[in-house]
Amino acid sequence: MAKVKVATAWLDCCSGCHMSFLDLDEALIGLADKIEILASPITDIKKFTPVDVGIIEGSVSNEHDEEVAKDLRANCKILMVWGDCACFGGINSMRNLFSIEDTLHRYYSTESTAQDSKIPTSEDIPPLIPVKPVNQVVKVDCYVPGCPPSPKAIHYALAELLEGRVPVLPSEIMRFD
Ligand code: SF4
After folding, report:
1. Closest atom of ligand 1 relative to the 19 alpha carbon
2. Fewest CB atoms less than 10 Å from the CB: which of 20, 61, 101, 108?
3. Would you say the CB of residue 16 lies under 6 angstroms from ligand 1?
4. Could you read off the pLDDT of 145-168 as tens digits, one per residue?
5. Is any atom of ligand 1 closer than 6 Å to the C-beta of 91?
6. pLDDT for 104-148, tens place per residue?
C-alpha cells in the first residue's frame, strides 16, 4: 500500500511540539512503514509539494509565517495543527498586549544588547503581525492541542488519519502524563 505523504512545518514556536512527536520513540518505526515525510523543519525545503497531510506547529506571527501556512494548505488534503500556539495562538499571543514597535524595541534593545545594535526593519526580518492561531489564516481540519501535545495525543491523531478518520481527540489523552 502506498505510504501517506506528510509535510510538517513550524512557524512561531519553540519546537516542543515536534520534539513531542520524536518522543514517540519506537512507535516512530511503525509509523515509518505507513507515512513518508517529504518536508519538515529538518529538510528546510522552501516550497511544499503536494502531500496528503500537512502539519503545522506554532502561531502565525509574521508575514513569512502567513506565506508558509498558505503554501502548505494549498498543497495538502488535510491540515492538522499541533500545540496550543498553532491551535489558539498560545503563549506567543501575549505579544499582542504590546505594539509591534514596542515589541521590536524590547527584543533588540535589552539591558545586555550592544549599545550600537539597531532595530531591524522589514528589509532585515519578515514584518511582524499580530499573533494569530493558524485557523485565522487558513482552514484547519484537525487540532491536537497541548503545550506540547503529548506523544500519545500525536500518535492517536496520526493513527486516526491513517484509518481515514479526521481525529477528534478524547479529553483524557489531552493531558501530558
Ligand atoms: S504549543 Fe508549547 S511546545 Fe508547542 S510550540 Fe507552542 S510553546 Fe512550544
Report:
1. 3
2. 101
3. yes
4. 999 999 999 999 999 999 999 999
5. yes
6. 998 888 888 887 888 899 899 999 999 999 999 999 999 999 999
Cα 21 to middle of ligand 1, angstroms:
12
pLDDT at 58: 98
Residue count of the chain: 177
Nearest residue by C-alpha to atom 5 in ligand 1 = 13
| Selection from 2, 4, 24, 10 nearest residue 153 by Cα | 24
Q: Which backbone phi and psi does 95 adopt, to 5 degrees? A: -60, -25
The pTM assigned to this predicted structure is 0.94
Instruction: Render pLDDT for 13-67 as a digit per residue (tens, 0 to 9).
Output: 999 999 999 999 999 999 999 999 999 999 988 899 999 999 999 999 999 999 9
Q: Which grid coordinates are listed for 30?
A: 511503525
Distance 116 CA to ligand 1 centre (A): 33
Which long-range CB contacts under 8 A does 149-153 form with residues at least 24 apart? 149/17, 149/20, 149/82, 149/83, 149/174, 149/176, 150/20, 150/174, 150/175, 150/176, 150/177, 151/20, 151/21, 151/23, 151/24, 151/25, 151/27
Which residue matches cell numbers 509574521? 62
Residues 6+ positions from 47 with CB-CB distance below 8 Å: 71
Could you give the 3-state DSSP secondary structure of residue 74? Answer: helix
